[in-house]
Design brief:
This protein has about 350 residues and is an alpha/beta fold. The protein has one domain: Spore Coat Polysaccharide Biosynthesis Protein SpsA, Chain A (Alpha-Beta Complex). It is about 35% helix and about 20% strand. The chain has a ten-stranded mixed beta sheet with strand order 1-15-9-11-8-10-5-2-3-4, with helices on both faces. The radius of gyration is 23 Å and the shape is globular. About 5% of the residues have low confidence.
């Protein structure tokens, strides 16, 4: 990497305009950050997906730690530790740290935060295969495209600068996978889900008092989000970024709750208890036609204004729908072609009248 990364100051955050994370790509943006991945019954999957993605994006695998639950999945004769060790050796990823976790997702995260001790860490789930961002190509409909190499280190550095200067405690990607629900160049600061598939966090000093209940592992991300917000620890989300992650696939929580109806009952019970404890932040909803993969809750949104990300130098005439950079000559020509004949004639007539008046 070469060059210095952009500067994000408190003044920029007060103005709600900061540098874009893509301006960090290719720059010297290494920051001290540990990566924790809680995992269960997915030894080969985590190597083929999340760890491969980290390696491809340029993240040092020696900073990554897999936290393996001591529970043994049904129909498995080998201990989990041995299965993961063989998988790491098979995929040539022995620099990854293999550590003992706790029972369930909550136990695994407690073990992970105890290991982190303090400072900056990244949490990822054990089946993230790609990072996507929203791309708009001219008049065509927007679509999700894979983020370029170097995007993840850039996100880690950009998120760190935002947290240090803005007083935030965490950041996350957008949990939505629908491209129409993603927004370009926006950091959402409203109460919304911290997606455990990719979240950065500055570990709070008294994180033990914020921990999720041991029997609430099924709604871990929801409860962690609510507990942080309730303690006035704010966060933001990259509204144009999401990750590819198959929901409720083999292994993980599904190994403990193979029956979808029983899992729904356990989820609903945990959500009700959370809504009773934090009635101003979360409420239970009813969706009779939804699938068993949908959690029946809704956050009570705050009125926090978003932050706009701006690309590159902010000079020159800008295209109306591109508020983040100056128009290129090619874009100006294309804009002229897109304009109707009447608009062009109106502009010419206006210019002629101005010359005559002068």
């Amino acid at each position: 990497m070469s060059g210095q990364r952009p500067v994000i100051s408190r003044r920029h955050i007060r103005k709600r305009e900061v540098s874009h994370y893509m301006d960090y790509v290719g720059k010297s943006c290494r920051v001290p950050c540990k990566v924790v991945i809680p995992t269960f019954d997915r030894p080969d999957v985590v190597c083929a997906t999340t760890l491969s993605l980290l390696k491809r994006q340029g993240v040092d695998l020696s900073t990554v730690a897999l936290f393996v639950s001591p529970d043994r999945p049904p129909q498995s004769k080998q201990p989990e530790w041995e299965r993961y060790l063989l998988a790491l050796r098979k995929h040539d990823m022995m620099e990854v740290q293999l550590l003992s976790g706790g029972s369930g997702l909550t136990g695994n995260m407690i073990a992970a935060m105890t290991w982190v001790k303090e400072g900056y860490f990244l949490t990822m789930s054990d089946r993230v295969s790609e990072i996507f961002h929203r791309a708009q190509h001219g008049a065509n409909a927007p679509k999700l495209v894979p983020a370029p190499i170097g995007t993840l280190p850039a996100l880690i550095a950009h998120g760190y600068d935002m947290m240090k200067k803005g007083g935030f405690v965490a950041w996350s990607v957008n949990p939505a996978k629908n491209v129409m629900m993603l927004r370009d160049n926006v950091l959402s600061c409203r109460l919304g889900l911290l997606d455990g598939n990719l979240t950065g966090c500055l570990l709070p000093a008294n994180w033990q008092s914020l921990q999720v209940r041991a029997d609430h592992g099924l709604i871990y991300d929801v409860e962690w989000t609510v507990r942080l917000w309730a303690s006035n620890r704010k966060f933001f989300r990259y509204a144009e970024i999401c990750v590819q992650h198959p929901y409720r696939s083999h292994g993980g929580q599904r190994a403990l709750y193979p029956n979808g109806l029983r899992r729904r009952v356990a989820e609903n019970g945990a959500l009700r208890r959370l809504a009773v404890a934090f009635p101003k932040l979360i409420e239970i909803i009813s969706k009779p036609r939804c699938t068993l993969k949908t959690m029946l809750y809704r956050f009570k949104h705050s009125s926090e204004p978003p932050i706009k990300m701006l690309r590159g130098p902010q000079v020159g005439r800008r295209r109306k729908h591109v508020a983040t950079r100056a128009m290129t000559p090619a874009e100006r020509k294309r804009k002229q072609r897109e304009m109707g004949t009447g608009q062009r004639m109106h502009r010419r007539t206006s210019k002629t009248r101005t010359k005559i008046k002068r």
